[in-house]
Design a protein that fits this description.
The chain is of the alpha/beta class. It has one domain. Helices cover 36% and strands 11% of the residues. The protein has eight helices and five strands, in the order ααβαββααββααα. The chain has a five-stranded mixed β-sheet with strand order 2-1-3-5-4, with helices on both faces. Helix 2 packs across helix 7, helix 2 crosses helix 8 and helix 4 crosses helix 5. The longest helix is centred in the C-terminal third of the chain and has 16 residues. The two termini are 30 Å apart.
Length: 263
């Protein structure tokens, strides 16, 4: 779920500078023109706070409140459903491949559209749509009442639906990504919604480093979010873990991060 507030970027940059994160560097190659810089060094406390803020809870909850971590517990197959007036299928595939390369424990691959019957079903479906079709996509996915409540609460521009088991295993996700509002909106939504699809289901408007701060437009996978996703898929953390169980496992997982930016 994504709502863009570009006017807040300068204030957020000042907030980041005032905190302990360091190692500021320009946005990586492939980011849209004007994408914000990123910080690459974070304390264990900064990573821990971000993990608990983003891996527990959700802005859109259907049914009982999840009791613990939600994530995939098997290799993930993603499928892109092309659509909309701008062809962004190849660009979306590059985003998915970027996640697969930077977070190997996802065991993520892109499924082709012409595989024979009987192969393993798709886990992550990405639907590319025009903005005018966004509300109808939400209505089809959630029905009128949930859509009305959700839109009134968050005024979203993109959306991800996550279905998980009672044990915390994510079973299937569907993301709706708008393709006709420019490179910045497309890339920001694409990276943002996949974080939700993989299990970072919440937002944190006070965090100046994450893509899941809805006051930011990022459009790439920053070191901070890569670290949180790596933690979520560390073998020491399991689907369904409570906050107390995750708090006991996180120090070892953070210490084992192979990210040069961790301090």
């Amino acid at each position: 779920m994504k709502r863009l507030f570009a006017a807040f970027f300068f204030l957020l940059s000042l907030s980041a500078a005032a905190l302990a994160a360091s190692g500021k560097q320009p946005a990586p190659a492939g980011a849209f023109v004007g994408a914000p810089p990123e910080y690459t060094r974070f304390s264990a406390a900064e990573l821990t706070r971000g993990f608990f803020a983003l891996a527990f809870g959700s802005d859109l909850r259907i049914g009982p409140r999840p009791r613990g971590i939600r994530r995939f517990d098997h290799p993930i197959r993603a499928h892109i459903v092309a659509g909309g007036s701008v062809d962004r299928s190849a660009a979306m595939a590059r985003v998915i491949e970027d996640y697969a390369r930077q977070v190997p424990n996802l065991r993520l691959s892109v499924a082709s559209g012409n595989e024979p019957a009987g192969v393993q079903p798709v886990d992550v479906e990405v639907q590319l749509i025009d903005e005018k079709n966004f509300k109808s996509a939400l209505l089809a996915a959630f029905g009128a009442q949930i859509t009305k409540t959700f839109v009134a609460r968050t005024d979203p521009q993109c959306m991800t639906s996550v279905k998980s088991s009672a044990e915390g295993d994510i079973l299937r996700t569907v993301s709706f990504i708008i393709v006709d509002k420019g490179d910045d909106v497309f890339l920001d939504c694409a990276y943002h919604e996949l974080l939700h699809a993989f299990g970072l289901s919440n937002h944190d408007q006070r965090n100046p480093w994450t893509t899941l701060n809805q006051k930011r437009i990022v459009g790439y996978l920053p070191v901070y979010d890569r670290a949180l996703l790596t933690l979520l898929y560390d073998p020491r953390l399991k689907p369904g873990m409570t906050a107390a169980q995750a708090r006991a496992a996180l120090p070892g997982a953070i210490k084992g991060l192979s990210l040069a930016g961790t301090k």
